[in-house]
Every structure is written in structure tokens, then in C-alpha cells.
Write a structure and sequence with these properties.
heme, Putative cytochrome c, metal-binding, heme binding, Cytochrome Bc1 Complex, Chain D, domain 2, mainly alpha, iron, about 0% strand
């Protein structure tokens, strides 16, 4: 018997989508792991991959879309905005919730990673 996502209840469809997204992220990281020997770099890249769904791979969101391209912003600006989301100073639809799930160190790591993407 063949099943399609169209015939699955919404919660199961959502879980299936999440599972596919996680598999894609793992496959992407697996390809990176072959070339990277530094565990800190892998950890940072994995952390940054959590932002890719909305902000694009390496912060390169599609130009013209409503989402912010993180790769063109300086590190200090990114961190200040993440902290503003976290504290509630900057209103958001979801970022205020997302930032509360990260430690200060993780937010600093994300800011440093995306801030370095635009440098030659």
C-alpha cells in the first residue's frame, strides 16, 4: 500500500517534513565533515544550519525575499539584534522565541559565523 503526504493527518505531515529537513541537514553536514577536521568548526556550522530554513545556507537568503540576509551584516549588529529579540526589545513573530533557546555563547558564535560570511 502506497502512502502520500496528502493522505496523512496534519501532525504526521508536519513530523514527516521535520524528519526530511533533519535528514537533509545531516546529509549536508556529512559532506562537510569529510573536509573539516576541526570539531569546533563543525559545531559552529551545525549551529548555523539551524538558521538556514529561514535565512538561507550560510545566511544567504534569496535576494528580494522578506527575510534578512545575515551574511551581509556585521557581527556586532547581528549579536545586538539577537539580544534585542531575546530581551523583547525588538518585536518579532518568532525570533524572540528562538533566541531564548540558545545560550549567550551560542548567540555570540552565530553572530561571529554569519558576520564572517561577507568577508573575502
Amino acid at each position: 500500500m502506497t502512502h502520500t503526504l496528502a493522505g496523512v493527518v496534519p501532525a504526521a505531515r508536519s513530523r514527516a517534513f521535520a524528519a526530511r529537513a533533519a535528514l537533509l541537514a545531516l546529509l549536508t553536514l556529512a559532506g562537510t565533515a569529510v573536509h573539516a577536521k576541526d570539531p569546533t568548526a563543525l559545531r559552529t556550522r551545525a549551529l548555523a544550519a539551524t538558521c538556514a530554513q529561514c535565512h538561507g545556507t550560510d545566511g544567504q537568503a534569496v535576494e528580494g525575499e522578506a527575510l534578512i540576509r545575515l551574511s551581509v551584516l556585521p557581527e556586532d549588529y547581528i549579536l545586538s539584534q539577537l539580544m534585542a529579540f531575546r530581551s523583547g526589545q525588538r518585536p518579532a513573530t518568532i525570533m524572540h522565541q528562538i533566541t531564548k533557546g540558545y545560550s549567550q555563547e551560542q548567540l555570540e558564535t552565530l553572530a561571529r559565523y554569519f558576520g564572517s560570511r561577507s568577508k573575502p
